[in-house]
Amino acid sequence: MRILMFGRGTIATLYGWAFAKAGHEVEFYVRPGRSAQLPPAVDLRIRDGRKRGAAVTERWPTTLREDVDADYDLVVLSVNHDQLDDAVEFLSTRVGGATVLMFGNVWADPAAVVSALPASQVVWGFPGGGGGFDGSTLRGGVVKNVFLGFVDDSNRGARYQAVRDLFRGAGFAVSQSRDFRSWLWFHFIMDAGLLTQGLAVGGRAELARSRTAARDVFLLMREMVPLLKAKGGTPRLGAAVVSRVPAVLLGFALRKVLGGKNMLSFLTEELERAGHTSGELAGVYARDVLADARRLGVPLPRLTALEPLFAVKHH
């Protein structure tokens, strides 16, 4: 399969490497002028969850393109959710016959986000990985599981099956959701709760140490669940757990995970190392959630009280 990764960010690089190792032809689209600024290879210092977290140390040459005029089978679009509109608009006149895998966080209505693309060519997914760059060195990793699902009339036929088979052929396990809109929105409030509380206490290590801080992650998430309904989503198992299980018990489990020697703890640590949990970057989740809550009249008192931590500073 000929695959174009849109951008050469962390997720695109991690999965592009995995696809290349599985025998696929992988290229990266970068902005004009960017290829001259980027090194010709990536120094990987990652952990591979497909192999029980095995360490990978490798210098991997990458192919960069500043146009999208080739005949690709698949374009993987994995950018920050606040960059999606521009990326989709760019691809809308260049996608050709390729399948487009939407592969990341979405807080707007997913169908509206991709309305400029042919619905029959869109497949929805979500990665299990993370980390960050330090110069040419990528530190982070992938877990074994990835998520795929359906949004309205997104493709459920041969294109979807080809993407599912791509991941399975590369050694990943695939979980599927029939209502990926609600799945994505719930995942978004999970990120908003975890990142905002992390800002409040100073990061992963403090969350792992503090029973109160870990509990408050889930109290933040709990007050956001009604917003999912107000936006038109359907809260499912995850929302039921957050709403009904005592937050102190969920916080206990979170502390065990964050304080342990496991992939989630490792990836969270690497995200912090790369600066992705700063107020400016991490706060975009909380800012978007709070803006929708105000628009829809859903009170979020806990998140509102923390707004000084993530509000955009005007100089």
Describe this structure in words.
The structure is a single chain. Helix 7 crosses helix 9. The chain folds into two domains: 177 residues, Rossmann fold; 129 residues, N-(1-d-carboxylethyl)-l-norvaline Dehydrogenase, domain 2. Strands 5-2-1-6-7-8-11-12 form an eight-stranded mixed β-sheet. The chain has a four-stranded mixed β-sheet with strand order 4-3-10-9, with helices on both faces. The chain contains 13 helices and twelve strands. With 315 residues, the protein is of the alpha/beta class. Strand 9 and strand 10 form a beta hairpin. The mean pLDDT is 93.
Question: Concise description?
Answer:
It comes from Lentzea guizhouensis. The protein has 315 residues and is an alpha/beta fold.
Round the Cα radius of gyration to an integer and report it: 19 Å
Per DSSP E runs of 2 or more residues, the count of β-strands stands at 12
Assigned CATH superfamily of the largest domain: NAD(P)-binding Rossmann-like Domain
> What average pLDDT do the residues reach?
93
Specify the helix fraction band.
40-55%
Largest sheet: 8 strands, mixed
Element order, helices and strands?
EHEEEEEHEHEEEEHEHHHHHHHHH
Domain Ketopantoate reductase N-terminal: 3-125
Organism: Lentzea guizhouensis
InterPro entries: KPR_N, NAD(P)-bd_dom_sf
Protein name: Ketopantoate reductase
